[in-house]
Design goal:
Blueprint (H helix, E strand, L loop, with lengths): L3 H25 L6 H20 L1 H25 L5 H9 L8 H38 L1
Helix pairs in contact: 1-2, 2-3, 3-5
Length: about 140
């Protein structure tokens, strides 16, 4: 509670490790160099820690909005149906079956994007109001 930026940076560091591993698999694994995975993990973690510490509020706002939108859309998709798993969609696209994907799935994707953007905008507006109130309080002292 006393150091929220440190906690957010630690969580972001783990995300950076995962992102670095993904980047290595996507871009550098074809070269067969074993050291690149470790370099990508360290660089990804360092970059994520720096960004989370430097841009704390935007990182928290964006990550919670995207996570919340995903949970909402995925939850509705589990009950309403017509929702494919992410890996299933990638496999269908690689197999040349992109035209066979249910149109309702693309509605879920659009809903995810809409809810993500709406969440970011609402939280940014609330943050600006909070910062303005804090500034007024400091000036009143």
């Amino acid at each position: 509670m006393k150091y929220p930026k440190v906690g957010a940076s630690m969580a972001a560091g783990w995300g950076g490790v995962v992102g670095g591993t993904f980047a290595n698999q996507a871009l550098l694994s074809r070269f067969g160099w074993s050291w690149t995975i470790y370099a990508c993990m360290v660089i990804g973690a360092a970059l994520a820690v720096y960004l989370a510490f430097k841009f704390y509020d935007p990182v928290i706002i964006t990550s919670t909005s995207v996570l919340g939108a995903y949970a909402l859309v995925r939850g509705v998709g589990m009950y309403a149906g017509h929702y494919y798993g992410e890996f299933e969609v990638v496999a269908m696209i690689k197999a040349g079956l992109a035209a066979e994907i249910d149109p309702f799935y693309w509605g879920y994707v659009a809903g995810f994007l809409i809810f993500s953007i709406a969440g970011i905008l609402v939280q940014r507006k609330r943050l600006k109001k909070k910062l303005a109130r804090e500034k007024v309080r400091r000036l009143m002292r």
